[in-house]
Write a structure and sequence with these properties.
4 copies of one chain form a homotetramer.
Chain A (H helix, E strand, L loop, with lengths): L13 E6 L15 H16 L15 E12 L8 E11 L3 E10 L7 E11 L2 E5 L4 H10 L5
Antiparallel strand pairs in A: 1-3, 2-5, 3-4, 4-5, 5-6
């Protein structure tokens, strides 16, 4: 579709493995295209959690003042996923801007080395209670992205 | 984000209105970014249904031999949606190819005239039981897209 | 299954109509059993919203100090639902206790008069930030339930 | 609520562990009550898959002639789950009838020994293409349930 080669695990830098659910499959017997974004969304959230971005305790959102607003997502689908497959989400950072981060994401079915889907996910950081106001990417996150997601190994 | 103007209802040609659900809202109190694709997916399916693409009776899939495989989707998020908003999905066709269709989609919150999100959704037509084999866009669908979705009014 | 007669619209007192989504259907081509609870959950939330239980503005949760904790739900499935059906959720209150409310819920497919599924949903009211502490059902809600949901018309 | 003691892992006989997703959490920051049924549904499906009930290959539904229709489900919620918790689904069979199976299900948060939620799930076996006609529980399944789910260890 895009003329780009299909990504492999080595093209990504950080991984988390998720389970599929019976109801992810639609009438055609494959994971519905919508659910791929749930894997993207959950993969990014797990990375942010590891980076301490939801407070010192897991999901202690009361203490969070800067949040990442999702402004753009995209997915290219190469091959089907189906329950009961596991899905490994691979992340890398393609652009770490002043107030935004572009995550690139690959989904890997079971033990496959080639991605079954790839896309991106752009967060813009804003003040939690005044969301029209962009803020710098928090330092803690900038450090985590730099250490763990920038440039393929 | 993209430098393009935000779409309005007049930029789209076919519409269907959907309800939001309590669980669409995530911890930030807005419809989660994943659900936007469920509105896209449902909007396209409602159009295909109206075009008779699921058999003569509603969702009579046994008789369907050609299916649209989703190969790419994307969404740009401009403003939040939240339960109990209604969502009007607007469709237009940006490219009607030999075996593929690119739908452009706008989501409109309640009575708003400006889109709160826009994106696209590309279907490639394949043989239902031999999905590596592309087939021409079915004639009935080509006629419906031409009549109802091509070129803004 | 239960020996009880299947409910009809006249057995319920308050109604809201919701749309189904393409991905609600599972591999058998019917709305998956899980989604029925999403209709229950959304029906109750729409009633609570109408009763002013989410703050003076829609979903102004910051101002809410008492929340309904779901402690028990159940559903009996009589007949299938399938996208693109509409679902009308009917509610009545079977028991309005000191700190709990038992909603009885019927789901009606399109224009059908007989329920395709019925169940219940029990809320216990607790202090929002101290959820082990039950509180009385808020007066505003008690009044709304008494006026609109108690005893079939 | 029910006067019954909260179940522990030892009360169940077969287990599968699933991941939570970011969007499972609702505005209150806990997994929404609807998703518990997705864990139930997926747990039962994983058991059926292990028992060979979806064909000789994973989810080879074309060859399946008898399907379990869900006729009743219920859940009691004892304590919250929240992303990024893992959920272990425990199953046992409470009643293996001529054409129906009643699964009892416990959900266990992370390493907890006490269930955070418990419920049941009743399947009635019917002919796949003639769903008003009940059929005996398939022998292969009867054997698997007898061996793996009947009576707590």
């Amino acid at each position: 579709m895009s003329g780009k080669a299909v990504g492999r695990r080595a093209d990504y830098r950080w991984f988390v493995t998720l389970s599929t659910r019976w109801m992810d499959n639609d009438v055609y017997g494959h994971v519905n295209n919508v659910q791929h974004y749930s894997f993207f969304d959950t993969g990014v959230a797990r990375f942010l959690l590891e980076a301490g971005m939801f407070g010192d305790n897991a999901l202690d959102l009361e203490t969070v003042t800067e949040v990442g607003l999702v402004v753009e997502t995209t997915c290219r689908y190469y091959a089907p996923l189906a329950f009961p497959d596991t899905v490994t989400v691979g992340l890398r950072c393609a652009r770490l801007g002043g107030s935004s981060i572009r995550y690139e994401i690959g989904l890997f079915r079971n033990e496959d080395d080639s991605a079954c889907a790839e896309g991106h996910f752009i967060h813009v950081y804003v003040h939690r209670h005044e969301q029209s106001k962009t803020v710098p990417v928090p330092e803690r996150l900038r450090a985590a992205v730099t250490a763990k997601l920038l440039a393929p190994a």
